């Protein structure tokens, strides 16, 4: 995806990890390989990864530039962080900030960092290791987090149940630095972006709706993890806090946005696209 223009807003992305960290069978425990194969006709080639023989996935940050603000949506895994969940996440030495600079964005220029939810692969670059401690990577930014999401994870962290370590090293430091904006689940950023609660994957998960003079888009976070879930929304991920609620939320999202002309930019999808109705069901298609 090159930088796209939607009216007066530019959308780019930084891809931190360009393949899936977990096989689909593990990621979507209720999925079925034969059913997925039945969708290959539309999943291939764009939503499939021939290197792994599995569905494509990314860990990425969307960079949204409005006439007034530079906004990052979700911040990946981060560098130098001890992460046992996936080998590719542990003590990374990635080029994320260089890749952001290549888009013309320095850390100082970022006005808002949005976390759709506080999972380990969405908060990593909130902080970086500097002079012996974790400090906010974006020194002038407000980090916008749904209050309900923070309350849940603060409790998990304080009670020792949060095992990844990401709340302690990637969220608490921005709160302590006074840079966190803990907001209602319908918060607006400028005139273009607005939070919407779509919960189930986590208790305070939000999507971020972009409205421009030339159409709208939704940054859907982890409401869906693999493109096949557009057609099979009943498959929740192994990381969904409430799989039944996540399923109902996903179904409602797919139905609402099918044939709507709203561009969908999911946290882990390899490309933006549109949900379309087809043959009594739904599928995803590239723009254009
Ligand atoms: Zn994720």
Commentary on this structure:
With 288 residues, the chain is of the alpha+beta class. The protein has a single domain (4-285), classed as Ribonuclease Z/Hydroxyacylglutathione hydrolase-like (Metallo-beta-lactamase, Chain A). It contains seven helices and 18 strands. The strands form five sheets. The protein has a seven-stranded mixed β-sheet with strand order 1-2-5-6-7-10-11. Strands 12-13-14-15-16 form a five-stranded mixed β-sheet, with no helix packed on it. The protein has a two-stranded antiparallel sheet with strand order 3-4. The model has no long low-confidence stretch (mean pLDDT 97). Zinc ion is lined by residues 119, 121-122, 222, 267-268. Zinc ion binds next to loops.
Task: Please provide a brief summary of the model.
The protein is an alpha+beta fold and 288 residues long.
């Amino acid at each position: 995806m090159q930088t796209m223009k939607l009216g007066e807003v530019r959308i780019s992305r930084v891809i931190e990890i360009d393949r899936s960290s977990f096989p689909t069978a593990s990621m979507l425990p209720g999925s079925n390989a034969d059913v997925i194969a039945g969708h290959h006709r539309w999943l291939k080639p764009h939503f499939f990864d021939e290197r792994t023989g599995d569905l494509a996935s990314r860990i990425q940050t969307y960079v949204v530039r409005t006439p007034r603000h530079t906004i990052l949506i979700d911040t990946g895994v981060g560098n130098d962080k001890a992460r046992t969940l996936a080998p590719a996440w542990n003590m990374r030495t990635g080029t994320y900030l260089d890749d952001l600079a290549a888009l013309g964005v320095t850390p100082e220029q970022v006005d808002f960092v949005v976390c759709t939810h506080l999972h380990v692969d969405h908060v990593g670059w909130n902080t970086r290791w500097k002079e012996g401690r974790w400090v906010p990577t974006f020194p002038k930014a407000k980090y916008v987090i749904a209050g309900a999401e923070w309350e849940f994870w603060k409790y998990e962290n304080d009670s020792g149940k949060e095992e990844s370590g990401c709340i302690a090293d990637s969220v608490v430091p921005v709160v302590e630095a006074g840079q966190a904006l803990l907001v209602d689940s319908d918060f607006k950023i400028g005139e273009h972006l607005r939070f919407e609660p779509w919960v189930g994957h986590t208790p305070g998960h939000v999507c971020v709706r972009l409205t421009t003079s030339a159409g709208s888009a939704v940054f859907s976070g982890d409401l869906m993890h693999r493109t096949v879930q557009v057609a099979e929304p009943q498959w929740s991920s192994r990381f969904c806090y409430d799989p039944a609620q996540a399923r109902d939320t996903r179904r409602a999202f797919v139905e609402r946005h099918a044939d709507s002309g709203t561009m969908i930019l999911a946290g882990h999808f390899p490309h933006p696209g549109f949900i379309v109705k087809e043959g009594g069901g739904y599928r995803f298609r590239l723009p254009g």
